Inverse folding.
């Protein structure tokens, strides 16, 4: 049955038919008809953010913690431009989100109208795809296609720009099933010959390693399950990028910890010395590889990725497999089992012996002495006191983010949300709102630095209004810690603009928002304070005053390979050469 | 997977035929990109080249199927083999792109460009321009007592040669279409 309705009603109907239960947004002139329709229904909850950037990060948190696309609704002009950072963030981390923007009426487009911006032009390079809908007849089909594109293949952000007259006009609503099948159908099954080649490599490898990434999380929980089965069955060591944490449990026997610039010593050394590297859904980011010409020089490299452009982009691949991680791992396991589950067991014993000797370095060790809280200690206690909980963790960007990745353990996928590719300070506070909306009864913690947190602190208002008990765990060193660390290592300890002179009193700030504030500056009080935060039924700002000049180690200095890691303050003199200094 | 020249259902080749060593020498490739003719599609293709730092030597675009609203974009680009492969894979990711064909590696091709060349001169120079145009099979499509506009079709190299010859004979201005290309045979 064909249904006639206004464009505004179509938007809400299309969202319902796509299974959307929550929308993050901010109203304005060009989306008022859609907000009117939202007012007239109860199926979709609308979360009113305080800034459009917050809406997009909240949708990212929602998407990453559920596997479903996050949805954002904002107005034209400034509403759309404020969404640009979040869109770029979602593009780099492959997060499926659908952003709907209002636009000035079609007959005013191009006239420099009030709150007019060339939204599809501005967002073309920070979305997977975007559409300007000039005809109400095409609106519902376009929204369904937008969801399809956001979720298919390598997920990503999409944007649909809807002029106000298109929202008012009548048209025919088309249901998702009736929409013409999109030609956009990325390949999900891997090439069988390449999979067999990888199985042969697995059977004979002497020093293999799994290097996994966000693609495993994006592929869905089944992919994580298959990965676990494969790792357990082969006994190969496994490391992961920042984005892939939780795909394999941190408590698992084969877990080496995160790799990369601030990854664990054993993980990076194993990457450097391995003879078979099996990349599962990761993309050889520059934070992972370090110096390219010295990256894992002796290994045969296999790469499983759904995006053909990721393969051979920066690293030469010997066994490329284009496909969805879940599908490829299923086929890989099938073939490997049918050929007798062979591995080079003798060599593996020696390889693990070598890895265990690297582990003995204990690269994350620290000493909590005196009356000043070490950030590593704060996160170790947070881990200890929350690990049994139904817990979701997100972060801002900087030292605290790396410490969180190092000292917190993730047992399941979709439990760890962080801005990896773009490194967006201000991501975590709104992301925690999106996560808590999706998981109202879970413990949601945003591990933050005070500088990042201030970037989107207005969203505390959202948390209080919607009674979202998000815990803002701020490691407060009164510094832009990572900037300060690089200035120490690279710029002769000239700390240009990297400390905060006039920080707010975070406890009073919490109270001003109607939330709870807790301050802790004594290691002896820390456990009690963390318990108070966990047990409080409502949003909390936890101001944890930590050591101001702590550096984040281990660290691969820029321009160096994996086996040239810095382990601590003792050996950082002139650690970064001139060629490394130009890198970011 | 059109960008990677792999026939549908083929298991003979690996999904990505990039086994040979990458060389550092730059190559010139002609790519045919089949796209939906929707607003902004050309901006997406051009934005990809500028955003990722690739070169465009020539670009032509026109709708070739008015019923299906499909356009064919012909791009001549230059880069190392690795960059060329990246360009093809990146083009293949764009949602309204249906297929990417690297005509340079897919066998023999016909490449043609059209140019309009205005020459103003008199006396011997005018006669010589007309004689050379005849040799190059260029047609005079406009004429005054002081000038010609020649229409010439051919490879970019042929057009370059003709334009160079016209320079001392009173060349005024040149308009070129960029390369259109098809593979030979079926």
């Amino acid at each position: 049955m064909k249904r006639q309705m206004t464009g505004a009603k179509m938007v809400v109907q299309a969202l319902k038919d796509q299974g959307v239960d929550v929308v993050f947004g901010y109203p304005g002139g060009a989306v008022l008809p859609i907000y009117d329709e939202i007012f007239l229904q109860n199926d979709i909850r609308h979360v009113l953010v305080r800034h459009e950037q917050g809406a997009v990060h909240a949708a990212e948190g929602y998407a990453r913690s559920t596997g479903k696309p996050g949805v954002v609704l904002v107005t034209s002009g400034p509403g759309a431009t404020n969404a640009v950072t979040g869109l770029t963030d979602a593009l780099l981390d492959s997060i499926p989100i659908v952003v709907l923007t209002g636009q000035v009426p079609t007959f005013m487009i191009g006239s420099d109208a009030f709150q007019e911006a060339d939204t599809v032009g501005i967002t073309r390079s920070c979305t997977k795809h975007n559409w300007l809908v000039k005809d109400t007849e095409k609106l519902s089909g376009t929204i369904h296609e937008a969801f399809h594109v956001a979720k298919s293949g390598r997920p990503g952000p999409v944007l649909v720009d809807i002029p106000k007259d298109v929202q008012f006009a009548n048209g025919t609503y088309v249901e998702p099933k009736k929409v013409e099948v999109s030609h956009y159908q990325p390949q999900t099954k891997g090439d069988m010959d390449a999979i067999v080649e990888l199985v042969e490599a697995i059977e004979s490898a002497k020093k293999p390693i799994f290097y996994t990434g966000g693609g495993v999380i994006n592929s869905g929980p089944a992919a994580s399950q298959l990965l676990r089965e494969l790792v357990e069955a082969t006994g190969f060591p496994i490391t992961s990028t920042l984005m892939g944490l939780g795909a394999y449990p941190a408590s698992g026997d084969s877990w080496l910890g995160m790799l990369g610039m601030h990854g664990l010593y054993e993980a990076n050394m194993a990457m450097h010395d391995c003879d078979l590297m099996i990349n599962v859904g990761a993309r050889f980011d520059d934070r992972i590889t370090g110096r390219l010409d010295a990256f894992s020089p002796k290994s045969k490299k296999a790469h499983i990725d759904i995006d053909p452009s990721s393969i051979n982009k920066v690293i030469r691949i010997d066994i490329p497999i284009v496909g969805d991680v879940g599908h490829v791992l299923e086929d890989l396991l099938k073939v490997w089992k049918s050929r007798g589950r062979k591995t080079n067991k003798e060599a593996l014993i020696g390889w693990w012996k070598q890895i265990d000797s690297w582990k003995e370095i204990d690269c994350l060790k620290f000493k909590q002495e005196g009356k000043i809280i070490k950030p590593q200690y704060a996160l170790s206690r947070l881990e200890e006191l929350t690990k049994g909980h139904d817990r979701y963790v997100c972060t801002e960007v900087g030292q605290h983010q790396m410490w969180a990745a190092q000292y917190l353990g993730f047992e399941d996928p979709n439990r760890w949300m962080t801005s990896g590719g773009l490194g967006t300070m201000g991501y975590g506070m709104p992301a925690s709102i999106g996560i808590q909306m999706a998981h109202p009864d879970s413990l949601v913690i945003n591990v933050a630095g005070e500088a990042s947190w201030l970037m989107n602190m207005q969203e505390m208002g959202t948390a209080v209004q919607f009674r979202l008990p998000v815990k803002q765990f701020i490691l407060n060193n009164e510094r832009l810690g990572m900037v300060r660390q690089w200035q120490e290592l690279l710029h002769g300890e000239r700390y240009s603009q990297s400390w905060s002179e006039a920080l707010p009193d975070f406890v009073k700030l919490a109270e001003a928002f109607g939330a709870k504030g807790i301050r802790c500056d004594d290691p002896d009080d820390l456990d009690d304070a963390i318990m108070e935060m966990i047990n409080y039924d409502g949003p909390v700002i936890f101001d944890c005053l930590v050591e101001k000049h702590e550096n984040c180690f281990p660290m691969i200095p820029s321009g160096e390979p994996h086996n040239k890691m810095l382990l601590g303050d003792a050996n950082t003199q002139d650690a970064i050469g001139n060629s490394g200094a130009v890198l970011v | 997977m059109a960008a990677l020249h792999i026939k549908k259902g083929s298991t003979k080749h690996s999904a990505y035929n990039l086994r040979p060593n990458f060389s550092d020498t730059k190559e010139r490739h002609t790519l045919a990109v089949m796209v939906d003719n929707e607003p902004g599609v050309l901006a997406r293709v051009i934005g990809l080249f500028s955003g990722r730092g690739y070169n465009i030597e020539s670009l032509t675009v026109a709708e070739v199927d008015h019923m299906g609203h499909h356009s064919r974009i012909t791009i001549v680009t230059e880069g190392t083999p690795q960059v060329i492969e990246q360009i093809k894979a990146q083009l293949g990711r764009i949602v309204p792109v249906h297929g990417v064909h690297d005509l340079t590696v897919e066998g023999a091709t016909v490449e043609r460009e059209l140019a309009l060349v205005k020459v103003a001169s008199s006396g011997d120079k005018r006669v010589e321009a007309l004689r050379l145009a005849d040799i190059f099979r260029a047609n005079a499509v406009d004429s005054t007592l002081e000038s010609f506009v020649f229409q010439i079709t051919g490879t970019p190299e042929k057009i370059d040669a003709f334009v160079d010859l016209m320079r001392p004979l009173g060349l005024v201005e040149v308009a070129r279409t960029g390369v259109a290309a098809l593979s030979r045979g079926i």
